[in-house]
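Contributing new records

If you add data, match the layout below exactly. Sequence lines come first and carry their own label; structure lines follow with theirs. Keep one chain per record. Anything else will be rejected by the validation script.
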Amino acid sequence: MDLPEYSYWIIAGLALVIAEFAISGLVVIFFGIAALLVGSLKFLGLLDDTTWELTIFAVTSLLLLVFVRRVLNDKLMGQASEREGTEDSAGLIGQRATVAGPFSDGVGTVLYRGARWQAQSQHPLEDGQMVRITEHQGLWLTVEPWNADHS
């Protein structure tokens, strides 16, 4: 069975696109897209010279890698950024928690939505007492006693 020349480009392109899912570096997919483009152009009869096929493949791959990868990488992978101020991305500040055992030297644990958190407080706190979360830093919470004024 003799396959037409364009089918090799199409098969290689599909294999490279599928390989991106296994490799996951957002690189191989652009070679696959370029190979699919060359295979499509060859199928349509717009390419018939191997030199042009390889040139279009190389140029398209390079352009996709340089320009499209940066945009897709930012959108798909996200960008790390420094947080400013007292931003609380988890939405914990102002929430109510329950003390899970007495605090010793201002340090203890609280329960918030079924999860145990390390907590610190300038106030003496007792087991079962309701507290307000005033600060959230990593795995630590700063809490204060809950009072009716804030409810």
